[in-house]
């Protein structure tokens, strides 16, 4: 009797095992089938039209050649007396200073460089600016560094012929707060021997004039 019972148990276990194997095989087939029915995703790509070598050479030549905007930049070559006024806040009193700027074109007339020497609040002041016109982007880029900090101001803008002025926008890091603040610069050609540069900073969400330089050519 025990042998019969043992035999029946073994048969039952074999039967159950076979069912599990069949079920596993069926599930594998189903998963395989589902994988086979999935269609691969095809990414659409666009290929830029090739540019021939002659066109590339012409584009680079135009990019590297000084253009019409470089002419008025070159007109500023010389020495300028600068009457400087500063405002350190929206309601602060103006502070006066003076400097002399020497302007020249560099790198084959492609960029303008200006060197400033003077005094601010009794302390020696030295500054250097560059001005570039990008023939490709049709934008001006202005940079400025001086001996009163370790940062560089970089502004990008465009020239408006109707107002004879260029407007630059950029950011600088406030050394007190460590946060970046937006600034706006307006550079105006008043007449052939007069230039006016105005700087506007933003404090607590309000823009105010922080500096004005009236330049007179010697």
Folded structure, characterized:
The structure is a single chain. This protein has 218 residues and is of the alpha+beta class. 25% of the residues lie in helices and 47% in strands. It has three helices and ten strands. The protein has helices at residues 2-37, 53-64, 68-74, and strands at 78-86, 95-106, 111-120, 123-134, 139-146, 153-160, 165-173, 180-191, 194-203, 206-217. A ten-stranded antiparallel β-barrel has the order 1-2-3-4-5-6-7-8-9-10. β2 and β3 form a beta hairpin. The N and C termini lie far apart (127 Å).
List keywords for this structure.
218 residues; alpha+beta; 25% helix
Strand-residue fraction?
over 45%
Query: Average pLDDT value?
Result: 84
Low-confidence stretches: 1-37
Radius of gyration: 36 Å
> Which series of helices and strands comes N to C?
HHHEEEEEEEEEE
Number of helices: 3
Topology of helices and strands:
Layout: H1 2-37, H2 53-64, H3 68-74, E1 78-86, E2 95-106, E3 111-120, E4 123-134, E5 139-146, E6 153-160, E7 165-173, E8 180-191, E9 194-203, E10 206-217
